[in-house]
Each structure stands twice: as structure tokens, then as C-alpha cells.
Amino acid sequence: MPHDFTIESLIEKLGLQPHPEGGFYAETFRALETCNPGNRYLGVRSTGTAIYYLLTPDTFSGMHILTSDEIFHHYLGDPVEQLQLYADGSHRRVEIGNDLLAGQKPQMIVPKNVWQGARLKPGGKFSLLGCTVAPGFDFADFAMGKRADLSSKWPAAATMIAALTRD
């Protein structure tokens, strides 16, 4: 699909606003049904939420962690590089995009309690993603990572951690 969109037109048409982790977002769905998922959450949560999420060349999704599973969906634009850091000290870099022959995936799952961050692949102009979270997203279940802390636990990923943190 050709890039017939400008960043400004996507922000306007989708009603996006700056996201605290970087990029732009708009919540598009919050389930009315709720659940009490247990002790890892503070109180009742929606059973699911969804957002549009836009990355641009001058933004990135800073390293953060959620207490819910998150599914990324690639809608349009250029591919995204995502870093995932696991509790056992391992990490993986994945590409979210539509070029299946190049190993990209149009859908990527980040399990709960896995550190994550993402950016456009070099040369990219924008990427419009969707993020679905279950149980639903709540900022009480979200924490941003610190470069020094993450780099000390995942030294093999330190270069990308540096690119995906602001401190």
C-alpha cells in the first residue's frame, strides 16, 4: 500500500494524542465487562482495551512493562523493531510489519511482565499499529524502565536499550 498519508493527517483523522511512552495514541475500545484478575492488579479491570498507536521517525516506544498481555497489530506504514526483555535475562528483537518473506510479523504478542520498547526501522516514515491489552490497560499497571537498570540485567541488549530509553 503506498504511503498516501502524512503524519499530521493520521494524527488528525484518528484523533491521536502524545503517549507518555512516546509516539501517539487514541483508545478505540474499552470493554464494559470487568474482571478482578487477582493480586497482580490493583482492583477491577476492564476485560480488554485497544488503541491506535503511531510511531514516527522522531518518536519511539520507550522501554516499559505491563502486568497484562499485549498484542501489536501492524496496520500501515513501515516496519517496527521491537525489543523484548525476559525475566530470565534473555532478550529478543522482532520486527512488526507486513513483509512476511523478510521475517516480519503483522501481529506480535508481548507477554505480561516482559519489558518492551519499539522504534521504526531505519529509514521508515511512520508506522500505524494497533495494541490490544487483556485484561484491559490501566496506567496503574504500567512502568517505564531506567537505562542503567535494564542495561545491567540485559548487557547483550544494552545498545538497543540505550536507543529506547530517555534517561
TrEMBL record:
Pfam families: Cupin_5. Gene3D superfamilies: Jelly Rolls (2.60.120.10). Transmembrane segments: none annotated. Residues 9-144 form the DUF985 domain. This is DUF985 domain-containing protein. It comes from Thalassospira xianhensis MCCC 1A02616. The lineage of its organism: Bacteria, Pseudomonadati, Pseudomonadota, Alphaproteobacteria, Rhodospirillales.
